[in-house]
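My main concern about presentation is that the manuscript never shows what a single data entry looks like. The format is easy to grasp once an entry is in front of the reader. For illustration, here is how one protein appears when written out as sequence plus structure tokens:
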Amino acid sequence: MPPSGNGGRSRGGKVRVKTAKRRSAQSTRWLERQLNDPYVAAAKAHGYRSRAAFKLKELDEQFGLLNGVERVVDLGAAPGGWCQVVKQKKPKARVVGMDLLAIEPMAGVDFFQKDITDEDSEALILATLGGPADLVMSDMAANTVGHKQTDHLRTMGLIEVALDMATRLLRPGGNFLAKVLAGGGDGQLTAALRREFTSVKHVKPPASRKGSSEWYVVATGFKGGAAGGSTQD
């Protein structure tokens, strides 16, 4: 169920958008979906930068991901909804975000507009955190090209990069949260997660659109050493 309050609708029925001359049918469908999405309305009512904030809130309620966190990394942080949720629950937590896109400044969040695959990205995050992370989050997805298999492989590649970085940023016992596709991706990724974490679960939070192929992997209990080291055998 979407959050209640000022974000809810006061009357039934859906908003229909007429196709404008300069607007494609795809853009029209997206706009219509946005206007009829209760989570979009709720995000505006609660001051969140995106509806994705409710996904993290729901996952935190289920798994306690933000309990006791002091250092959090948000990969693919724009526009900042997840950072908002972390700071709301843990105002004193050190939060470092990174994304190719810019975001509006946020109190208590150190944000870097750069590619996470840059050679200096990992060291920059670790230095800014001031210690190993308790939680590494990734809501990244590759820009789609319209070919289902290609889009899937590109996004799964980003997840693998995020996981690789997480294994060098997390403290022992730390947690990893990432968006995946179609129920969790291929067996190789799941196997890699299980090698690194004591528990791996795939979840579709209520705020995730039913028609979307996105799921989230929640990996808890990192088995590796301190951040900055290597978990390679």
About this structure: The mean pLDDT is 80. Helices lie at 25-35, 38-46, 52-63, 81-89, 121-129, 148-169, 187-196. Residues 15-46 form one domain.
